[in-house]
Amino acid sequence: MALNMGLNAIGGDPRLSIDAADPDQAVFVSPKHRLHHDPSVTFEEYHFYALKTREIQDREALNEPQTKGILAILFPPKSTKIESSPATPPSGGVGEKTSGETPPTDGGGRLVVTDEEWVNASRAMRTATWAACFYLITTDILGPFGVGYAIGTLGWGPGIALFTVFGLMAGYSGYLLWKIYLGLDSFEFPLTNYGDLAFRLYGTVPRHLVNLLQTIQLLCSVGLIVISNGQAISQVSKFKLCYAVCCVIWAACGFLIGQVRTLQKFGWLANAAVFLNLMIMFITMGVIAHSPPNFSISVLGSVGGSVNVTSITPDADGVYPPIIHNSGLPDPSSLIGSITGLMQGVYAYGGAQLFVEFMAEMRRPRDFIKAMWGAQFFIYTVYMVYGCYCYHYQGQYTYSLAYQGVSPYGWQTAGNMLAVLSGIIAAGLYGNIGIKVLYNQLLIDLFNFPPLTTRNGRIIWATIVPIYWTIAFIIAASIPDFFGLVGVVAAFCVIQFCYSFPPLLALGYFIKLNAMGDGEGFNPSTGVVTRHDTGIRRWTRGFFGDMWYRNVFNVIYLGGALATAGLGAYSSIESMINAFKDTQLNSFNCKSPLNLNG
């Protein structure tokens, strides 16, 4: 049904395809009087205002002082200053109140302001720099520490090759999202999240599906971080503290950090999280080079535990097998373990689901491409070196969370505590955007909840935060196979947002863009949208128009992404089925799953 809606949108709604020869048919409605998700706004109108906005931003960029120096990149300001004018409210993040009084609104929830005030209000929301976005993109607790495990389950050759391919394609997906965003976002019609892209290209139902899937992914990501932090604390306490309490502690911390409502305020926290993760990597690399693996927990989530249990099973004298490596697939006859490992590696590139939210708060979204490619290069280089290093020294004993795979207790504690701090920052970021998607796109649209700029909206936000974190904890805690759950989330959500949706959205965008011929487009004076044809003829012209080979490649890319997601879903579900068959602990017990001797 979503595809049919998308094709209909590409062909055009006859009610909106008004011939320029009869302008009296057009009833011009100013953008400030439109609903945020108004189905009557056409692609041509979105694109017209987007080009206008890019011109304004480019002119402003020429007059702004250029920030230079390595310190400005390593420690970027959380925002850029915006010169105020009588029509420009004080700058603030999305969802923040900008004055002492709540502005009046019309029936659609829009501010009753002039056209100039409407544009300036939109501009005032955009304050983030590209360097700050770099840190937001690289704030990922699960990504780096599972790369060694992913390489091990695939073997040296396939592991490095696939991780490289995933990195390149993740960068290409980010490029596609950036191109689409620049062509559809404007001060008049601001894009705020991933679902808005689906809405403007394919319609209402795809928007709700994307928002629902993004909500599920962010909810599960928060839950996974709560559980991993709980495991870390239980290991630090030498399993003397009830494991369920260890997890609940971090759910309670989420109640507090979740009260931060703007990404702008996460800027310096994201900066700190990146350096915390680097410290964990350096500590882990130094320790595993001079100490044996943590044999006792290898059965829980190591390379051998996933692909060949006999390779980590001790003999009658309690002596574990020597470290081994595989140049190819460890077990070509069974791909379940290898694909499950690959899904862990996919998490390293899972930031694309938040790219639209990051661009929405940027002063100059055209610069996002620098932050995105810089982050992808950083992630690939650092994570690849770290993953290969861990697998080289620990082989089949490489653990899914590498810092928990070191054997000296003191260094375990250091890694766990740093990971806890980094993890709560990442969980706060995911929870912040997850609640925004849930609130702005579902509760406001479907149940008429008040906007977050109102007092009631802020009260409801404060109430939703603990409920959200509690649900995230319950979902993750009730599933005994932690790493199987990671794989399921990666297959059903991460791959879609990072690899499936971008080429699908790009197809809709470039077909519509290429279909616009001479004499067609949006007239801002009359509100008339002129289209000379509709249907198959228009779709065909759009597909085989400018750079048609890009559309062909996107079709192939989309098919490959969906196939990979299917394989990942199958392997992860099989892994979880096996986990439920065995008697295993979940996070509602006092005994930690890492405590095999308790």
What does this structure look like?
This protein is mainly α and 598 residues long. It has one domain (2-13, 33-61, 127-581): Up-down Bundle (Amino acid/polyamine transporter I). It is 61% helix and 1% strand. The protein has 21 helices and 2 strands. The protein has helices spanning 2-11, 43-63, 70-74, 115-124, 130-138, 147-154, 156-184, 194-202, 204-236, 243-257, 267-288, 298-301, 303-307, 336-346, 355-360, 368-394, 409-447, 455-477, 482-515, 536-543, 548-581; strands at 521-523, 528-530. Strands 1-2 form a two-stranded antiparallel ribbon. A hairpin with a 4-residue loop joins strand 1 and strand 2 (528-530). Helix 9 (204-236) runs antiparallel to helix 19 (482-515). The chain is globular, with a radius of gyration of 25 Å. It starts with a helix and ends in a 17-residue tail after the last helix. The relative contact order is 0.17. Mean pLDDT is 80; it is low at 1-26, 78-103 and 106-111. GO terms for molecular function: L-amino acid transmembrane transporter activity. Keywords: Membrane, Transmembrane, Transmembrane helix. Residues 127-507 form the Amino acid transporter transmembrane domain. Residues 80-111 are annotated as: Disordered. InterPro entries: AA_transpt_TM (IPR013057).
